[in-house]
Automatic annotation (TrEMBL):
Species, as recorded: Illadopsis cleaveri
PROSITE patterns: LDLRB
Domain of life assignment: Eukaryota
The LDL-receptor class B repeat ranges on this chain: 1-43
Name of the molecule in the record: LRP1B protein
SMART domains: LY
Cross-referenced SUPFAM superfamilies: YWTD domain (SSF63825)
Amino acid sequence: KLFFTDYGNAAKVERCDMDGMNRTWIVDSKIEQPTALALDLINKYVYWLDIYLETVEVVDYQGRRRQIITKGRQIRHLCGLAVFENYLYTINSDNFSILRINRYNGTDVQALAGLDNAKEIRVYQKRTQAAVRSHACEADLYGMPGGCSHVCLLSTSHKARTCRCRTGFILGSDGRSCK
């Protein structure tokens, strides 16, 4: 799944399949300016910052069990969001400090370090990566991902895929080759 935020005409947190199909709103009320999003892949939770409402919130992948993690004026100065173990990590855009927020007790906030002009944060650690199983976009005998001549996108599950073409090409009737 692909998760994303939008705060155009109607602010929301959404998800869809990797090929863009099955687009679903998972949060569409009491939300104004969701600006950063992080996923807990193991427990299937979506965290986001709302800089207008000054909140960090969480829901499960279906949009249920919504909770406010922390709320207050300091949220409007945050950018970027990552989750690792018991903590959320973000950046204070006023002083570019990395903040660690306990995701179970939002009052436990600690400044860890300062950076120059940072706007995004990621955690790179082996435990943050889910084990990869075989999937529909694996290279075939000819080295083509999922048998697609240009681009292979996972669809409704790891067993289904959609082929797409680069700009200027159209998908052939076989659903795999681009012309």
